[in-house]
Every structure is written in structure tokens, then in C-alpha cells.
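Continuing from yesterday's entry. The apo prediction looked reasonable, so today I'm repeating it with zinc ion included to see how the binding region is handled. Same sequence as before; SMILES copied from the compound registry.
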Amino acid sequence: MAVDHELGAKVRLGDHVALLGSCSWTDRTLVQDGDWYPKKTMSAEERLRYYATQFPLTEIDSTYYAPPAEQQARLWAERTPDGFRFDVKAYSLLTGHPTRPKSLWRDLREQLPPEVAEKRNVYASHLGADALEEAWRRFERALRPLHEAGKLGGVLFQYPPWFVPRRENRAEIDALRDRLPDYRICVEFRSPMWLAEERDRERTLRTLEEHRLVFVCVDAPEAGPTFAALAERGWSLSDVLITHHHADHIQGVPELKAKFPNLKVWGPAKDAARIPFLTHPVAKGDTARIGSLAAKVIETPGHTLGHIAYYFEEDEIAFCGDTLFSLGCGRAFETPYAVLWSSLMKLAALPGQTQLYCGHEYTEANGRFAVTIEPDNPILKARIEEVARLRAARRPTLPTTVAAELAANPFLRAEEPAVQAAVGMHGADPAAVFAEIRARKDRF
Ligand SMILES: [Zn+2]
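Holo prediction written out below.
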């Protein structure tokens, strides 16, 4: 297979090279729900090889549920091109999480007291000191093949919320470096107490630095800017509108809710299971009433299955989340491309003057791709110049309008002869042309 030797693109940030990837190449949303992989029937090996052509990095989270075997780590190393990296999540037993007895190595499991062995979960404290030390040794040894192949990125120790800065827990952190002397160790705290008080914060950061432990923040809550904006205006918060379940769109909500207990949280009923704090699930045709304002719910699946947009008809405003961006559109993570295409057409059908508030400020990067499709579109060229000016002045390029996007955004222009010609699909079904453009952007 020729693809074996190509590695997914790296990103340059100033003098640094950043590797981007997904947490697990076997995630359900990649394997089953969407068409991210070229075939549904691929073997584990084929999937990993294909994944590595798209991304240079992945996280292995199966090692949290059961410790890896050395043989497995060797296969991971063999099946990926040079330069590929695996971040490995530490086994649950090693971060104080509940652990299935069955996942333990058999001989260590047999050392558990009988009344413990029958429990649903065991903890590190149930093992004798020697057995626990042996567990650390085996975990370390199993990762050797990855390390020796230069493919072990970091080992992630994600500590639970109840792992607070107490003496014995600080001792755990102190011991990490001796337990895995050769590996890059990353530490993530789920308890805010490690950093909340200045004294704790200084001590925590000093310890991490002394032991050369990498500090990891995931899904940093974005409630802060909301609080600041509210305070500036002297407002309180009554409603939150959620377009889809992705962490970067919902992670600030629990904190907002803690401060405003009566907060109404609107969001897609279809994804209620993935957005646990929804108070007002809505679906196609529903109206979200926020004070005297009314938003019609438009279902726009594609980026995610349950994605919705909010259309304030009277105010001529739409919040379109990650379905449509200025000069671009979201990735089709959870549906075939054609589904995302028909969702985009629903937004394109709104009146031209409708202001579109997109989920991300990606306009500048999108413009770089858009000109590869329509290099001679004068409206696109003018928009790219305008965007460069706005960004240089640190100003947003959003909102945009439906009319502006119809004139410049190649993803909405799959019916245009110039766009069809650009991808060599003259006269083809617009949905197919869109799919080709989206696939090219995925690789861009
Ligand atoms: Zn998203």
C-alpha cells in the first residue's frame, strides 16, 4: 500500500511543530456513525494505517480500561510510518480510578482477597505493595516498543476529581518520574483545587517542573469571558442556545449553570444523551423563546447528527454553529457529505440579508482554501482582502450574511459552472461536487 509511507500533515506554530490528532482512531463517530474511513469493513490494521495518513498523532484510550500488552504496542509501532506518535492514557488502576478486576493481569488478580476479587471494581489500595509495584513495572515495560521506535508521545495521567492536593496524592505525583523514568509524562487534574489557591498553585507547578512532568489542560471552560461580558453590562444570564454536543461548544455550561441556577439550556433533542444538562430540548420546527425574541429551530445535521441552527426571523439573525463558516463549512464528522450539503442549502435558503453568526472565526484560513477552487472570483478576492484588514486590526470577520456567502463561499457554490469546472465535474450533481470540495478541504 503506497499510503503506508505518507504521514498526516503537521502544523507549524512559529518555531514549533504541532501534531494534531484525534483521541483514538477507533472512536465510534469515526468508525460507525460517519464515513470518515473509506470503507466500513476495514480491519484494525487497515484503519490504523489509514488514520496515520490523515493525522500524525493519536491518543490510545483503550489502555485506560486494560493495560496494554507489549506485543500490541509492537504492532502499533510496526503499523505506522516514521514520525507518527501515540499518546497513551495511563491504566485506570494507576490514577486511582475504579478498575475492573478482569482487566488486571491474571497472576496479580489471583492475589486479591476473595471478597475483593468478586467486586465490580477494585482500587490500587486493594493490591499489596509488591503487586502494585509489579503493575507499574509491567505497564512501563509494555510501552517499551513504542518508546524504542520513537513513537511514544506522552503517557497521560488523568486524575479523577476526588484526587485533591493532599499529602499522599502529592507523593503519587512525586513518584511518577521514578516509576516511568524514560517517558514523557503528562498530568491532568480534574480537581480545580490543585491550582485554585495561590499557595497550592505555586507548589503544584513547581513539583511538575522539578520532575519534568507536562501539565495538560483539556476542554478549558469558557465560562470566564461570558461572566466578564455580563458583568460589563450588569446583566444576568437566562438562556443558553446550544447548536451541537462538541466540548468546545458546551463545556462552559455547567459553570454558568452553577452561577445562574435558573438558566435555561436549549439544545438539540436528538443529542440530549450527549448534552446531559439540557433543560429545553428542541427539534425541527420548534421555537426557542428567549424573552420577547423567538428563534426557529432548523435541523442541520452533518457536522454532528443532531446539529441545529437558530433562526431569529424577525431580527434577521441566525446562529449556525459549526455547519456553515464564512468562506467554509464544518467537517462532516457524523453523516455522509450529502447530508451536510442539504443542511447548508437550508441555511442558504434564508433571506440574503440574514446575518450569520458562525461557531468559529476560521474565515482567514478558509479563504486560503477557497481561492484554490475559485481563483478568479472577484467577490471572493475582495472578501479575502477585507478579512486580512480586519484580522490585522484584531477585529472579527463575523457575522457574515447569507448573500455574502452565496457570492464567495465555494461550499455553497457547487452549482456554479466555474466551481464545477475547477474540480473537473462539469454538469455533475451539486451534492457530489460539494462532496469533492469538502474532501479536498479535509486534505488541505
Ligand atoms: Zn463542532
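Comparison notes:
- The CA atoms of residues 285 and 297 lie 6 Å apart.
- The mean pLDDT is 90.
Will overlay with the apo model tomorrow.
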